[in-house]
Write a structure and sequence with these properties.
The protein is of the alpha/beta class and 266 residues long. 16% of the residues lie in helices and 24% in strands. A 10-stranded mixed β-sheet has the order 3-6-9-12-15-18-21-24-26-27, covered by helices on one side. A 9-stranded parallel β-sheet has the order 1-4-7-10-13-16-19-22-25, with no helix packed on it. An 8-stranded parallel β-sheet has the order 2-5-8-11-14-17-20-23, with no helix packed on it.
Amino acid sequence: MNKIHPTAVVDPSAKIDPSTEIGPYTVIGEGVIIGKNNKIGPFCVIENTTMGDNNHLIASAFIGVKPQDLSYRDEPTRVTMGNGNQIRECVTIHRSTDVDCPTSIGNNCLLMANSHVAHDCHLGNNIIVANSTGIAGHVIVEDRAVISGLIGIHQFSRIGTMAMVSGGSMVHQDVAPYCIAQGERARLVGLNLVGLRRNGLSRETISAIKNAFKTLFRSGKLLADAMAELEATHPCAEVQHMIDFCKNSKRGLVAAKRSMRENDDE
């Protein structure tokens, strides 16, 4: 425990691996569990959190504090965080409102300065959330999604696997996997082809995803008919994931722009 700065305040009930460093003026609350080789910088507040290994909190991050939800009544809810995450300056991650389902952050995510993850959100692995983006309550972000800066994501929305949301967008519905969304009211403008290639998808798989995108969002067919047509072809796993994502949408899907020249306000 000699890696804890003398000005830090650590609740006696907290369980902290001796290899973890805790910086000046950081506050660790009751019942916190922190694994191996974490680096927690100055002025952080960590409450009601279970943290894995090799995470790095730069400074002034608030993890596991009370949700900004007026229905919350001090239930013993939590945040769970995996391994290898980078949490930059002034990030906030709020604990859940549901005792049985913590707010969760997976592995190897980068949350840039001033970003916010609200109560009951679930972020997967290898996700990037850029500066000053706000993710409202109950949002799901799937693996390897990239969310740019200055974005607002409406509660209960979902961001699909390897999707990218462009800076300044307002996301009010679900963004399908592998797609790029942008605009004041976000709409799909194409596929995240650079991301697909960087993540090692084969040409055949990318071609299948292109065809699925056109069928689902550009063909003019009813979504149910488009999904049925794709399923009849015995699609690859990635296309099947797109279909399943669309089927499970509760808020509806962010639509594709009719053309690249379309105004966002139309």
